[in-house]
Recover the amino acids of this structure.
């Protein structure tokens, strides 16, 4: 993992800590979907059409789209020995489920963004994003973040980057009941305790990352009620 990937991981992890590990976020639509204005591009498709079961990956993405999102989010939050990344935490599953439900209004946004990303990578690098070396994937992501990637109209390159980064953080650090943060990978990464039956006085006073088991989430709590 390059320095850029490592620094990006540390930035997202620190942001998650400052935001309370996004622990209470259940598909926080206001953070993403609510920030998008209605797009009225006359050339845009009217709606995303349902796919046959043989074409789907999960609930929304097809195989190629899923592969691209998996690769993209892993570069945003790359795994390392002892440190889970986006793949480990099931971020793809989180985004896939969200786009079939709470974030359904972003389906066209994702489809068009992914199509523009594919066209951009083939034009600049003569390969699709998933086939690029990780260093080149990082370069492509950097141009999206900076808004200098060619060929993006709607969503713009920065809009596309910002939404995927937001959803990657949600998939890493939101409660596992929403499909990401698999086996509490994100919470363990930042030392977030999750839902605990009781905190000891020592826990309350400690400034160290929380490591005592068990870490539980909403799904476990709901089963107990």
């Amino acid at each position: 993992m390059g320095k850029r990937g490592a620094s990006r991981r540390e930035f997202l992890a620190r942001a998650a800590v400052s935001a309370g590990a996004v622990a209470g976020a259940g598909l926080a639509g206001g953070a993403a979907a609510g920030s998008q204005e209605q797009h009225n591009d006359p050339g845009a498709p009217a709606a995303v059409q349902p796919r046959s079961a043989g074409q789907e990956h999960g609930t929304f993405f097809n195989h190629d789209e899923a592969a691209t999102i998996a690769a993209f989010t892993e570069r945003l939050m790359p795994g390392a020995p002892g440190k889970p990344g986006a793949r480990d935490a099931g971020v793809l599953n989180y985004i896939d489920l969200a786009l079939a439900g709470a974030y359904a209004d972003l389906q066209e946004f994702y489809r068009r963004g992914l199509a523009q990303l594919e066209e951009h990578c083939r034009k600049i690098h003569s390969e699709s994003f998933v086939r690029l070396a990780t260093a080149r994937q990082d370069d492509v992501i950097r141009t999206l973040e900076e808004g200098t990637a060619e060929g993006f109209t709607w969503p713009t390159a920065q809009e596309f980057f910002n939404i995927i980064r937001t959803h990657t953080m949600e998939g890493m650090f939101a409660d596992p009941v929403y499909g990401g943060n698999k086996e509490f990978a994100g919470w363990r990464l930042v030392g977030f305790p999750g839902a605990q039956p009781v905190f000891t006085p020592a826990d309350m006073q400690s400034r160290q990352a929380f490591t005592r088991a068990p870490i539980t989430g909403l799904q476990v709590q709901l089963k107990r009620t």
Notes: The radius of gyration is 18 Å. The chain has a mean pLDDT of 80. DSSP finds ten helices and no strands in the chain. The chain has two domains: 3-16+29-192, 193-225.
